[in-house]
Amino acid sequence: MVKEFEKAGFTIVHMCNLIPVSLTVGANRIVPTISIPYPLGDPNTSTEEQWKLRYHRVGVALDALATDITEQTVFKTRI
Amino acid sequence: MKKVIHYINQFFGGIGGEDKADQEPFIREGVIGPGMAVQAALKDAEITHTVVCGDNYMGSNTETAISEILEMLKDKEFDLFIAGPAFQAGRFGVACGNICKAVQKHFGVPALTSMNEENPGVEMFKQDVIIFRGGKGAVKMRQDVKVLTDYANKLLAGDRGGGALAEGYFPRGCRHEKFLEDVRENTAAYRGVQMLIKKMNKQPYQSELVIPAREAIPIAPAIQDMSKAVIAMVTTGGIVPMDNPDRIQSASATRWGKYDISGMDRLESNVFKTIHAGFDPAAANADPNVIVPLDAMRAYEKAGRFGRLHNWFYSTVGTGTTEAEARRMAQEIIPSLVKDGVTAIILGST
Protein backbone atom coordinates (compact mmCIF):
# COMPACT_ATOMS: atom_id res chain seq x y z
CA MET A 1 0.00 0.00 0.00
CA VAL A 2 2.88 2.34 0.88
CA LYS A 3 4.37 1.86 -2.56
CA GLU A 4 1.08 2.35 -4.32
CA PHE A 5 0.49 5.65 -2.49
CA GLU A 6 4.03 6.82 -3.16
CA LYS A 7 3.71 5.86 -6.81
CA ALA A 8 0.64 8.08 -6.96
CA GLY A 9 2.78 11.00 -5.77
CA PHE A 10 2.00 11.19 -2.05
CA THR A 11 4.92 11.75 0.28
CA ILE A 12 4.50 8.88 2.68
CA VAL A 13 6.12 7.58 5.82
CA HIS A 14 5.73 4.00 6.96
CA MET A 15 5.52 3.58 10.74
CA CYS A 16 6.10 -0.07 11.51
CA ASN A 17 7.82 -2.56 13.73
CA LEU A 18 9.04 -5.04 11.11
CA ILE A 19 11.65 -2.81 9.49
CA PRO A 20 13.20 -5.59 7.33
CA VAL A 21 9.79 -6.32 5.80
CA SER A 22 9.22 -2.67 5.09
CA LEU A 23 12.68 -2.38 3.51
CA THR A 24 12.17 -5.51 1.42
CA VAL A 25 8.78 -4.45 0.19
CA GLY A 26 10.25 -1.09 -0.74
CA ALA A 27 9.05 1.67 1.57
CA ASN A 28 11.31 4.71 1.26
CA ARG A 29 10.68 6.66 4.50
CA ILE A 30 10.43 4.40 7.53
CA VAL A 31 9.98 5.23 11.23
CA PRO A 32 10.24 2.32 13.67
CA THR A 33 7.49 1.57 16.15
CA ILE A 34 7.94 -0.45 19.33
CA SER A 35 5.85 -3.58 18.78
CA ILE A 36 3.16 -5.21 16.71
CA PRO A 37 0.18 -5.11 19.14
CA TYR A 38 1.00 -1.63 20.48
CA PRO A 39 3.15 0.22 17.93
CA LEU A 40 2.98 3.56 19.72
CA GLY A 41 2.57 3.00 23.47
CA ASP A 42 3.51 0.12 25.73
CA PRO A 43 0.56 -0.60 28.05
CA ASN A 44 3.01 -1.79 30.71
CA THR A 45 4.24 1.77 31.07
CA SER A 46 2.37 4.79 32.42
CA THR A 47 -0.06 6.74 30.27
CA GLU A 48 2.36 9.64 30.38
CA GLU A 49 5.26 7.54 29.14
CA GLN A 50 3.10 6.12 26.37
CA TRP A 51 2.11 9.61 25.32
CA LYS A 52 5.74 10.80 25.30
CA LEU A 53 6.79 7.90 23.13
CA ARG A 54 3.89 8.34 20.73
CA TYR A 55 4.32 12.10 20.50
CA HIS A 56 8.04 11.68 19.85
CA ARG A 57 7.70 9.00 17.17
CA VAL A 58 4.88 10.77 15.34
CA GLY A 59 7.11 13.87 15.43
CA VAL A 60 9.90 11.87 13.80
CA ALA A 61 7.42 10.75 11.14
CA LEU A 62 6.43 14.37 10.43
CA ASP A 63 10.12 15.28 10.17
CA ALA A 64 10.59 12.36 7.79
CA LEU A 65 7.88 13.75 5.51
CA ALA A 66 9.78 17.05 5.36
CA THR A 67 13.18 15.43 4.79
CA ASP A 68 14.64 14.90 1.34
CA ILE A 69 16.22 11.48 1.01
CA THR A 70 18.15 9.78 -1.76
CA GLU A 71 17.70 6.17 -0.65
CA GLN A 72 15.49 4.05 1.60
CA THR A 73 15.87 5.62 5.03
CA VAL A 74 15.01 4.36 8.50
CA PHE A 75 14.69 7.46 10.66
CA LYS A 76 16.19 7.39 14.14
CA THR A 77 14.03 7.61 17.23
CA ARG A 78 15.14 8.55 20.73
CA ILE A 79 12.28 7.22 22.85
CA MET B 1 -16.26 -31.72 -25.65
CA LYS B 2 -15.15 -28.54 -23.89
CA LYS B 3 -15.76 -25.17 -25.48
CA VAL B 4 -13.17 -22.49 -26.04
CA ILE B 5 -13.53 -18.92 -27.27
CA HIS B 6 -10.57 -17.30 -28.97
CA TYR B 7 -9.65 -13.61 -29.18
CA ILE B 8 -7.45 -12.09 -31.90
CA ASN B 9 -6.82 -8.65 -33.39
CA GLN B 10 -7.67 -7.27 -36.82
CA PHE B 11 -4.39 -8.43 -38.29
CA PHE B 12 -4.67 -12.06 -37.26
CA GLY B 13 -8.38 -11.86 -37.94
CA GLY B 14 -7.55 -11.24 -41.59
CA ILE B 15 -9.29 -7.85 -41.70
CA GLY B 16 -6.19 -5.82 -42.38
CA GLY B 17 -3.22 -4.06 -40.84
CA GLU B 18 -2.91 -0.65 -39.25
CA ASP B 19 -5.57 0.81 -41.56
CA LYS B 20 -8.11 -1.55 -39.99
CA ALA B 21 -6.95 -1.15 -36.39
CA ASP B 22 -10.09 0.84 -35.56
CA GLN B 23 -12.23 -2.21 -36.28
CA GLU B 24 -15.02 -2.60 -33.76
CA PRO B 25 -15.25 -6.03 -32.15
CA PHE B 26 -17.25 -8.79 -33.81
CA ILE B 27 -17.77 -12.46 -33.13
CA ARG B 28 -17.84 -15.37 -35.60
CA GLU B 29 -18.56 -19.02 -35.14
CA GLY B 30 -15.55 -21.29 -35.54
CA VAL B 31 -11.86 -20.58 -35.96
CA ILE B 32 -10.07 -17.77 -37.75
CA GLY B 33 -6.34 -17.50 -38.52
CA PRO B 34 -4.15 -18.62 -35.62
CA GLY B 35 -7.21 -20.27 -34.12
CA MET B 36 -6.53 -23.15 -36.50
CA ALA B 37 -3.20 -23.87 -34.82
CA VAL B 38 -4.81 -23.59 -31.39
CA GLN B 39 -7.67 -25.85 -32.44
CA ALA B 40 -5.30 -28.47 -33.82
CA ALA B 41 -3.42 -28.64 -30.52
CA LEU B 42 -6.46 -28.83 -28.24
CA LYS B 43 -7.59 -32.27 -27.05
CA ASP B 44 -11.28 -32.83 -26.38
CA ALA B 45 -12.02 -29.15 -26.89
CA GLU B 46 -13.10 -27.00 -29.76
CA ILE B 47 -13.02 -23.33 -30.51
CA THR B 48 -16.69 -22.52 -30.93
CA HIS B 49 -16.29 -18.80 -31.56
CA THR B 50 -13.66 -16.23 -32.40
CA VAL B 51 -13.77 -12.60 -31.32
CA VAL B 52 -11.90 -10.12 -33.48
CA CYS B 53 -11.20 -6.55 -32.40
CA GLY B 54 -8.96 -3.83 -33.79
CA ASP B 55 -6.04 -2.99 -31.55
CA ASN B 56 -6.60 0.76 -31.71
CA TYR B 57 -10.29 0.39 -31.02
CA MET B 58 -9.46 -1.65 -27.92
CA GLY B 59 -6.66 0.74 -26.97
CA SER B 60 -8.62 3.97 -27.31
CA ASN B 61 -12.04 2.76 -26.17
CA THR B 62 -10.99 0.08 -23.75
CA GLU B 63 -14.03 0.16 -21.50
CA THR B 64 -16.47 0.30 -24.38
CA ALA B 65 -14.68 -2.46 -26.28
CA ILE B 66 -14.59 -4.72 -23.23
CA SER B 67 -18.28 -4.20 -22.47
CA GLU B 68 -19.18 -4.83 -26.12
CA ILE B 69 -17.23 -8.09 -26.09
CA LEU B 70 -18.66 -9.19 -22.75
CA GLU B 71 -22.10 -8.55 -24.20
CA MET B 72 -21.28 -10.81 -27.18
CA LEU B 73 -20.12 -13.56 -24.82
CA LYS B 74 -22.90 -13.46 -22.31
CA ASP B 75 -25.15 -15.97 -24.07
CA LYS B 76 -22.25 -18.27 -25.01
CA GLU B 77 -21.24 -21.31 -23.04
CA PHE B 78 -17.49 -21.75 -22.76
CA ASP B 79 -14.96 -23.40 -20.48
CA LEU B 80 -11.86 -21.47 -21.44
CA PHE B 81 -10.93 -18.19 -23.09
CA ILE B 82 -7.70 -17.88 -25.07
CA ALA B 83 -6.29 -14.60 -26.42
CA GLY B 84 -3.43 -14.27 -28.85
CA PRO B 85 -0.57 -15.22 -28.89
CA ALA B 86 0.45 -11.57 -29.00
CA PHE B 87 4.26 -11.96 -29.27
CA GLN B 88 5.88 -8.53 -29.01
CA ALA B 89 2.88 -6.65 -30.41
CA GLY B 90 2.33 -4.10 -27.66
CA ARG B 91 -1.22 -2.97 -28.31
CA PHE B 92 -2.36 -6.53 -29.03
CA GLY B 93 -0.67 -7.72 -25.85
CA VAL B 94 -2.37 -5.08 -23.74
CA ALA B 95 -5.66 -5.91 -25.46
CA CYS B 96 -5.21 -9.62 -24.66
CA GLY B 97 -4.46 -8.76 -21.03
CA ASN B 98 -7.46 -6.47 -20.76
CA ILE B 99 -9.95 -8.86 -22.28
CA CYS B 100 -8.61 -11.92 -20.41
CA LYS B 101 -8.83 -10.07 -17.09
CA ALA B 102 -12.37 -8.90 -17.85
CA VAL B 103 -13.59 -12.31 -19.04
CA GLN B 104 -12.17 -14.07 -15.99
CA LYS B 105 -13.74 -11.57 -13.65
CA HIS B 106 -17.08 -11.40 -15.41
CA PHE B 107 -17.69 -15.05 -16.22
CA GLY B 108 -15.39 -16.83 -13.78
CA VAL B 109 -13.93 -18.73 -16.74
CA PRO B 110 -10.13 -19.12 -16.89
CA ALA B 111 -8.41 -17.04 -19.55
CA LEU B 112 -4.97 -17.64 -21.00
CA THR B 113 -2.73 -15.64 -23.26
CA SER B 114 0.87 -15.58 -24.47
CA MET B 115 3.29 -12.73 -25.06
CA ASN B 116 6.96 -11.95 -25.27
CA GLU B 117 8.52 -10.67 -22.05
CA GLU B 118 9.15 -7.30 -23.70
CA ASN B 119 5.45 -6.82 -24.34
CA PRO B 120 4.14 -4.11 -21.96
CA GLY B 121 1.07 -6.30 -21.45
CA VAL B 122 3.21 -8.67 -19.37
CA GLU B 123 4.07 -6.16 -16.67
CA MET B 124 0.50 -4.84 -16.67
CA PHE B 125 -1.35 -8.13 -16.44
CA LYS B 126 0.97 -10.91 -15.27
CA GLN B 127 -0.49 -10.79 -11.78
CA ASP B 128 -4.07 -11.10 -12.98
CA VAL B 129 -3.83 -13.37 -15.98
CA ILE B 130 -1.81 -16.45 -16.87
CA ILE B 131 0.51 -15.19 -19.59
CA PHE B 132 2.80 -17.71 -21.27
CA ARG B 133 6.32 -16.68 -22.22
CA GLY B 134 6.14 -16.21 -25.96
CA GLY B 135 8.44 -15.45 -28.85
CA LYS B 136 9.07 -12.08 -30.45
CA GLY B 137 7.04 -12.62 -33.59
CA ALA B 138 4.58 -14.84 -35.44
CA VAL B 139 7.40 -17.09 -36.61
CA LYS B 140 7.16 -18.55 -33.08
CA MET B 141 3.44 -19.20 -33.47
CA ARG B 142 3.63 -22.99 -33.43
CA GLN B 143 5.88 -23.08 -30.36
CA ASP B 144 3.90 -20.48 -28.41
CA VAL B 145 0.61 -22.19 -29.21
CA LYS B 146 2.02 -25.54 -28.07
CA VAL B 147 3.11 -24.25 -24.65
CA LEU B 148 -0.24 -22.54 -24.12
CA THR B 149 -2.38 -25.44 -25.32
CA ASP B 150 -0.36 -28.02 -23.35
CA TYR B 151 -1.48 -26.18 -20.26
CA ALA B 152 -4.98 -25.55 -21.63
CA ASN B 153 -5.44 -29.29 -22.13
CA LYS B 154 -4.41 -29.97 -18.54
CA LEU B 155 -6.63 -27.22 -17.23
CA LEU B 156 -9.64 -28.46 -19.19
CA ALA B 157 -8.99 -31.93 -17.77
CA GLY B 158 -9.14 -30.52 -14.26
CA ASP B 159 -5.39 -30.38 -13.61
CA ARG B 160 -3.94 -27.05 -12.51
CA GLY B 161 -0.45 -28.10 -13.56
CA GLY B 162 2.83 -27.64 -11.80
CA GLY B 163 3.00 -23.88 -11.44
CA ALA B 164 4.44 -20.98 -13.38
CA LEU B 165 7.97 -22.21 -13.97
CA ALA B 166 7.01 -25.76 -14.91
CA GLU B 167 4.22 -24.67 -17.24
CA GLY B 168 6.02 -21.71 -18.77
CA TYR B 169 3.97 -18.74 -17.73
CA PHE B 170 4.98 -15.58 -15.87
CA PRO B 171 4.72 -16.05 -12.10
CA ARG B 172 1.62 -14.41 -10.69
CA GLY B 173 2.70 -14.50 -7.05
CA CYS B 174 0.04 -17.16 -6.26
CA ARG B 175 0.70 -20.17 -4.07
CA HIS B 176 -1.21 -23.43 -4.32
CA GLU B 177 -1.44 -26.22 -1.81
CA LYS B 178 0.02 -29.54 -2.94
CA PHE B 179 0.01 -32.82 -1.03
CA LEU B 180 3.23 -34.79 -1.18
CA GLU B 181 3.74 -38.48 -0.60
CA ASP B 182 3.92 -39.25 3.12
CA VAL B 183 7.63 -40.01 3.44
CA ARG B 184 10.31 -38.49 5.63
CA GLU B 185 12.08 -36.74 2.72
CA ASN B 186 8.94 -34.75 2.04
CA THR B 187 8.54 -33.26 5.50
CA ALA B 188 9.06 -29.52 5.78
CA ALA B 189 11.77 -30.11 8.37
CA TYR B 190 13.75 -32.37 6.07
CA ARG B 191 13.36 -30.09 3.08
CA GLY B 192 14.31 -27.04 5.10
CA VAL B 193 17.42 -28.63 6.56
CA GLN B 194 18.54 -29.89 3.13
CA MET B 195 18.21 -26.37 1.82
CA LEU B 196 20.12 -24.98 4.78
CA ILE B 197 22.97 -27.48 4.28
CA LYS B 198 23.23 -26.47 0.64
CA LYS B 199 23.19 -22.82 1.58
CA MET B 200 25.92 -23.32 4.20
CA ASN B 201 28.03 -25.17 1.65
CA LYS B 202 27.44 -22.37 -0.83
CA GLN B 203 25.71 -24.78 -3.20
CA PRO B 204 22.79 -23.71 -5.34
CA TYR B 205 19.38 -24.30 -3.78
CA GLN B 206 15.85 -23.39 -4.67
CA SER B 207 13.63 -21.65 -2.14
CA GLU B 208 10.07 -22.96 -2.03
CA LEU B 209 8.81 -19.48 -1.33
CA VAL B 210 10.29 -17.25 -3.98
CA ILE B 211 9.80 -13.60 -3.20
CA PRO B 212 9.23 -11.84 -6.52
CA ALA B 213 11.72 -9.14 -7.42
CA ARG B 214 10.60 -5.85 -5.97
CA GLU B 215 9.60 -2.91 -8.01
CA ALA B 216 11.48 0.12 -6.68
CA ILE B 217 9.32 3.20 -6.33
CA PRO B 218 10.89 6.60 -6.99
CA ILE B 219 11.15 8.50 -3.71
CA ALA B 220 8.46 11.13 -3.39
CA PRO B 221 9.92 14.58 -2.72
CA ALA B 222 9.93 15.97 0.82
CA ILE B 223 7.09 18.28 1.79
CA GLN B 224 8.64 21.72 1.30
CA ASP B 225 6.12 23.71 3.30
CA MET B 226 4.69 21.70 6.18
CA SER B 227 2.37 24.59 7.08
CA LYS B 228 0.38 23.74 3.94
CA ALA B 229 0.60 19.95 4.24
CA VAL B 230 -2.65 18.01 4.42
CA ILE B 231 -1.85 14.71 6.07
CA ALA B 232 -3.91 11.52 6.07
CA MET B 233 -3.55 8.53 8.37
CA VAL B 234 -3.85 4.98 7.04
CA THR B 235 -3.52 1.84 9.11
CA THR B 236 -3.25 -1.87 8.43
CA GLY B 237 -3.90 -2.48 12.13
CA GLY B 238 -7.63 -3.04 11.76
CA ILE B 239 -8.89 -0.09 13.82
CA VAL B 240 -12.62 0.27 13.12
CA PRO B 241 -15.77 1.60 14.80
CA MET B 242 -17.10 -0.92 17.33
CA ASP B 243 -19.62 -2.46 14.90
CA ASN B 244 -17.05 -2.82 12.07
CA PRO B 245 -19.54 -1.30 9.59
CA ASP B 246 -17.55 -2.30 6.49
CA ARG B 247 -17.18 -5.89 7.69
CA ILE B 248 -13.44 -5.80 7.17
CA GLN B 249 -12.06 -9.31 7.55
CA SER B 250 -9.80 -10.07 10.52
CA ALA B 251 -7.24 -11.71 8.23
CA SER B 252 -6.61 -11.87 4.48
CA ALA B 253 -8.58 -8.66 4.13
CA THR B 254 -10.10 -7.60 0.85
CA ARG B 255 -12.08 -4.70 2.32
CA TRP B 256 -11.13 -1.34 3.82
CA GLY B 257 -13.00 1.41 5.62
CA LYS B 258 -12.95 5.19 5.81
CA TYR B 259 -13.82 6.67 9.21
CA ASP B 260 -14.64 10.26 10.10
CA ILE B 261 -12.43 11.80 12.79
CA SER B 262 -13.43 15.43 12.37
CA GLY B 263 -13.89 17.04 15.76
CA MET B 264 -12.16 14.19 17.60
CA ASP B 265 -9.00 14.79 19.61
CA ARG B 266 -8.27 11.12 20.12
CA LEU B 267 -9.72 7.72 19.29
CA GLU B 268 -11.76 6.64 22.28
CA SER B 269 -11.82 3.09 23.55
CA ASN B 270 -15.29 1.51 23.17
CA VAL B 271 -15.86 3.76 20.15
CA PHE B 272 -13.05 2.21 18.15
CA LYS B 273 -11.41 -1.19 18.47
CA THR B 274 -9.19 -3.45 16.41
CA ILE B 275 -10.47 -6.45 14.48
CA HIS B 276 -6.96 -7.57 13.46
CA ALA B 277 -6.56 -11.30 14.17
CA GLY B 278 -2.78 -11.28 13.98
CA PHE B 279 -2.01 -9.94 17.48
CA ASP B 280 -3.41 -9.59 21.00
CA PRO B 281 -5.95 -6.77 20.66
CA ALA B 282 -5.98 -5.81 24.36
CA ALA B 283 -3.65 -2.80 24.14
CA ALA B 284 -5.23 -1.40 20.99
CA ASN B 285 -8.76 -1.88 22.31
CA ALA B 286 -7.83 -0.10 25.54
CA ASP B 287 -6.31 2.79 23.60
CA PRO B 288 -6.72 2.76 19.79
CA ASN B 289 -4.31 5.71 19.57
CA VAL B 290 -1.41 3.27 19.97
CA ILE B 291 -2.21 2.19 16.41
CA VAL B 292 -3.79 5.29 14.87
CA PRO B 293 -2.07 8.14 16.75
CA LEU B 294 -4.85 10.68 16.40
CA ASP B 295 -4.07 12.30 19.77
CA ALA B 296 -0.46 13.03 18.80
CA MET B 297 -1.44 14.22 15.32
CA ARG B 298 -4.00 16.64 16.77
CA ALA B 299 -1.41 17.99 19.19
CA TYR B 300 0.98 18.67 16.33
CA GLU B 301 -1.82 20.11 14.22
CA LYS B 302 -2.78 22.54 16.98
CA ALA B 303 0.85 23.50 17.45
CA GLY B 304 1.01 24.39 13.75
CA ARG B 305 3.54 21.70 12.88
CA PHE B 306 1.59 20.96 9.67
CA GLY B 307 -1.36 22.37 7.76
CA ARG B 308 -4.26 20.14 8.69
CA LEU B 309 -5.23 16.56 9.27
CA HIS B 310 -7.47 14.92 6.65
CA ASN B 311 -10.90 14.31 8.19
CA TRP B 312 -10.90 10.55 7.75
CA PHE B 313 -8.56 7.75 8.53
CA TYR B 314 -8.45 4.60 6.41
CA SER B 315 -8.21 1.13 7.81
CA THR B 316 -7.75 -2.44 6.73
CA VAL B 317 -6.12 -5.56 8.15
CA GLY B 318 -2.60 -6.39 7.00
CA THR B 319 -2.28 -10.03 8.04
CA GLY B 320 -2.40 -12.61 5.26
CA THR B 321 -3.41 -9.86 2.87
CA THR B 322 -1.89 -10.36 -0.56
CA GLU B 323 0.13 -7.67 -2.24
CA ALA B 324 -2.36 -7.60 -5.07
CA GLU B 325 -5.26 -6.88 -2.68
CA ALA B 326 -3.18 -4.28 -0.83
CA ARG B 327 -2.38 -2.57 -4.08
CA ARG B 328 -6.01 -2.54 -5.13
CA MET B 329 -7.19 -1.19 -1.79
CA ALA B 330 -4.63 1.63 -1.94
CA GLN B 331 -5.79 2.46 -5.45
CA GLU B 332 -9.37 2.59 -4.24
CA ILE B 333 -8.45 4.93 -1.37
CA ILE B 334 -6.45 7.36 -3.51
CA PRO B 335 -9.39 9.26 -5.10
CA SER B 336 -10.72 10.20 -1.67
CA LEU B 337 -7.30 11.58 -0.71
CA VAL B 338 -6.93 13.48 -3.94
CA LYS B 339 -10.37 15.04 -3.54
CA ASP B 340 -9.39 16.59 -0.22
CA GLY B 341 -5.99 17.76 -1.40
CA VAL B 342 -4.02 15.36 0.78
CA THR B 343 -0.29 15.77 0.17
CA ALA B 344 1.24 13.37 2.68
CA ILE B 345 0.38 10.11 4.42
CA ILE B 346 1.39 8.40 7.62
CA LEU B 347 0.79 4.69 7.17
CA GLY B 348 0.99 2.59 10.30
CA SER B 349 1.46 -1.18 10.13
CA THR B 350 1.17 -3.67 12.94
What would you say about this model in short?
The complex is a heterodimer of chains A (79) and B (350). Chain A is of the alpha/beta class.
Q: Can you walk through the features of this model?
A:
The complex is a heterodimer of chains A (79) and B (350). By secondary structure, chain A is α/β, with parallel strands linked by helices. Chain A is built from three helices and three strands. Chain A has a three-stranded parallel sheet with strand order 1-2-3, with helices on both faces. Chain A is globular. Chain A starts with a helix and ends in a 5-residue tail after the last strand. The mean pLDDT of chain A is 95. Chain B has 350 residues and is α/β, with parallel strands linked by helices. The mean pLDDT of chain B is 94. Chain B is 32% helix and 18% strand. Chain B folds into two domains: 166 residues, Rossmann fold; 123 residues, no CATH class. Chain B has eleven helices and twelve strands. In chain B, the strands form three sheets. In chain B, strands 2-3-1-4-5-6 form a six-stranded mixed sheet, with helices on both faces. In chain B, strands 9-11-7-12 form a four-stranded mixed sheet, with helices on one face. Chains A and B meet through helix 1, strand 1, helix 2 and helix 3 of A and helix 9, helix 10, helix 11 and strand 12 of B. Strand 1 of chain A pairs parallel with strand 12 of chain B.
